[in-house]
Amino acid sequence: MAVFARPRQALAVAGVLGLALSVTACGTGDDKSSDKADSAECAAYEKYQGNDGKKVTIYSSIRDIEADRLDESWKQFEDCTGIEIDHEGSGEFEAQLGVRVDGGNAPDLAFIPQPGLVKRFADAGKLKAASADTKAMAEQNYSADWLKYGTVNGQFYGAPLGSNVKSFVWYSPKTFKEKGWTVPTTWDELIALSDKIAASGTKPWCAGIESQDATGWPATDWVEDMMLRTQTPEVYDQWTTHGIPFNDPKVAEAVDKAGTILKNEKYVNGGFGGVKSISTTSFQEAGTPITTGKCALHRQASFYANQWPQGTKVAEDGDVFAFYFPAIDPAKGKPVLGGGEFVAAFADRPEVQAVQTYLASGEYANSRAKIGDWVSANKQLDLANVPNPVDKLSVQILQDQKSVFRFDGSDLMPAAVGTGTFWKGMIDWINGKDTATVLQSIESSWPK
Predict the structure, then answer these.
(1) What's the pLDDT tens digit per position in 69-84?
(2) Whole-angstrom Cα distance, residue 345 to residue 393?
């Protein structure tokens, strides 16, 4: 359970209150006497009217309590517009979406977390281009860095929904205060701190890349973060699209830079063993030695907030918190690696376009954020509506004008590479295989 998740009772009360307000505000069609305050509740949804009684189906990988929060987040929209949103979440989403689409049973909308998958459906002629209203809403609320991931061959298909920031290093504020350590803001300070901790007899870093069938992915995130720190954003884009080969010297430089930490026996793997223990340590457990003082630093995404042992206080003055993974050359900007999902449409009925437009709006972003445990790159998202401290930090980074955002590279590459040979290559690399051999093997696997 997420550390900052509101209790189910609170969610239930909020849902009931929200429903009551919505019903009161929007009425049932028989109540013509709503006062100004009540009518104001539905004012934000005026542009989506005219679709009363219509249904829109949505398919995604979002399940359990997160799916309940989705239902709560658009409840007032449903009540005010009369559109029924039928959301289905599945653990087999990526595999089953293709089956459904090819079988003529596509959902109206899908929340797709891989831009490469958006491109695949668009190239196959399965997706509907976003309406002019959706495009205008997206351009108003999202940066060009984000919009390009929902664009294929110059055609815009869908705006982002939720987001996550991967360029984080987790640490213990309590331990830092006790030891007199300072949160580093530059790469040189990060390495100096690592050396200082190592000299004290503690392994400064802990890491783990074991993730069952997906073992290796946390190491690909390291490489992606280092590509953004050793190269320009343009070179990163060339790498993810095979504009440069996978074994290009620029890629080798980034991998070796990651190796100055991950393959440094003086630095890793606090609480678990040496370098090779990284390949057998689960990503869920990898950061936990921070809570016992066996390591001090763990590079992992914002969503790692949900992995800490129950009772761990995640806050700036708590047991654990995170800081931005520093740039090597701050003068070149603030590189940010992250992910998210995109709202893609397989139908273009008016009610489907209305929901797709609404999900790109500031009203939706703030509605969902207030419920908790959610981040978006939507420019209209008010920080005051983001209760979770790590989520708040993530939104600040995403909204920072200096930030240069790039999407998770393995999600942009062909699946055979991004979730295949790249993952496997990182396991081999951690276990001792040299950089050149690993990169050559991945390069050879790129689809011709």
Answers:
(1) 999 999 999 999 999 9
(2) 31
